[in-house]
Amino acid sequence: MINIIKTAIKIFLLFIFLFFLGRAIFASAATSSKDININVDVTACNHNGICEMWLGESTTTCVADCPVCNHNGVCQPWQDAVSCPDDCGPHVVVAGGGGLPAINPVPPQILNLHIVNTSPNSATIACNTDILAYCQIFWGTTADYLGGSLSEISFVFNHQMSIPNLIPNTTYHFKVACYNTSRVGAETSDVTFITSKILPTAEMSNVIDANAISGNKTITLSWLSPPNEPDYAGVYIVRSAVFYPTNKDNGILVYKGMGTWSSALNKFVFTDAGLLNGVRYYYTIFAYDKNGRIASGAIVSATPQPPVKIIPPAGETTTVFVPVSQEGTGPAVPTGMASGTLVFKDFDFTQDLGLLPVVQDNVNAKAESPISVGLKNYKIPAAARSAVVTFENSVSKQKFSYIFKSDVKKDIISSIFFSSKDAGKYNVSIVFFDYRNKPVQQVTGTIILQPVAAELKYTQTIVKAGGCAVPKIISKTMENHPKLLQYYEIVCPWWPLVFVIIFVGGALFVWRVLVRLYPW
């Protein structure tokens, strides 16, 4: 009994194998075949009063069964508006029972075509038609309209379609085609629109490495452009003899532009001349971009000095005047100043749109990436009029200062500065000033910049081999690891493998059956 069951199972498996093998062979033959001809031998006309189009009857081969025109107002499937305008004209109402809708040869008129709106990635187009119609829209970056197309699914008078997945700040061409219920259509000429630009939502970064060098009745300001700001357009330099200007209208605008490149300093510079020696001048450098964003401002100050008179030694008659140069950055703050109720963790530090935690007055951040610092308005000291954040290297003691600006929408004051490319510990001092520009409160902490991790860049090529894709990934550059990285991965579709297993298994089964039936 057991042997009978085993034999039955083997026969069943053989049947399954032959079934799938036959299907595979048939599918292969059908795929490779270019033409399949089916010849049906039918009578051209059987004169039964029924137009049997599926048997080859038509107004040409069987007028008796397929009359050219019945003149009964019913447009039959074998009739058309040209040969039978009485039954298939544009104004014929279809009678009940098997008739087709009458063909309307009059195309719709496309009226009031207009662009409703555009965004960086989409556009909405609308129009009207004088009759019920459905419309299609074709678009692309050229008049070939290779970008894509959309079609309505119902007949309406008012049409509106939205084009998705567009590229910002790009000119697009489009045309609209509309069709009546008989699919007789009309189309517009070429129309263009421009998608809008993506306006940055993040704060504008400040210039970096700002400094001021004083001379005789002059102060030369220097800076570097803010990194990662592709739409950066220049700076406003605003001067005051009282305190650092908090916005570009809070002082005298002495310069607007990109600055002049100094090969000696390797920075952009501007020299403010005609100043009074011995007077301290306060400057805020506001970076701005093409989208109207203005940074909170980098601050510097300096005092012009007259040249020092050097009396020549005995026997010489020439008196030498040596200019005195002084560098200035942020405000001077008394040491040991109390922080009051504010603490370092009251401030929000963000980088790459993520909040940086404050642990025991320390913040860990990445080097070479902007850091934003903000404070809710309700936490600002009551006597404070302005605030300045100073970022100082704990080793070199080089420091840069930035002024806070008010953000009414977010209900905060904030500033943004670009972290140094050098990893390490940086002292942060946030000072609030009153209406007399006197420091009233100071909060200190530390930002620890972590080195930027090595970035792995690679290219990928696909090599076809034996029906399988063999991706080959090779490292082009690997910072801090100039090592060639290679690996191969074979990716094959699953169905050929299944087919091979079935075929081999079936062949072995057939071989075993033949051996049992016909032993050698």
What is the topology?
Elements: H1 2-32, H2 85-88, E1 110-118, E2 123-140, E3 148-151, E4 156-163, E5 171-179, E6 185-187, E7 191-194, E8 208-214, E9 218-224, E10 232-240, E11 252-257, E12 260-262, E13 267-273, E14 281-289, E15 298-302, E16 308-310, E17 320-322, E18 327-328, E19 348-351, E20 354-356, E21 358-359, E22 362-366, E23 370-376, E24 386-393, E25 399-403, E26 405-407, E27 412-418, E28 424-433, E29 439-450, E30 456-465, E31 468-478, E32 486-488, H3 494-517
Parallel strand pairs: 22-29
Antiparallel strand pairs: 1-2, 2-3, 2-4, 2-5, 5-6, 5-7, 8-9, 8-18, 9-13, 10-11, 10-14, 12-13, 14-15, 15-25, 16-17, 19-20, 19-23, 21-22, 23-27, 24-25, 24-28, 26-27, 28-29, 30-31, 31-32
Helix pairs in contact: 1-3
Q: Can you summarize this structure?
A:
This protein is mostly beta strands. The protein has helices at 2-32, 85-88, 494-517; strands at 110-118, 123-140, 148-151, 156-163, 171-179, 185-187, 191-194, 208-214, 218-224, 232-240, 252-257, 260-262, 267-273, 281-289, 298-302, 308-310, 320-322, 327-328, 348-351, 354-356, 358-359, 362-366, 370-376, 386-393, 399-403, 405-407, 412-418, 424-433, 439-450, 456-465, 468-478, 486-488.
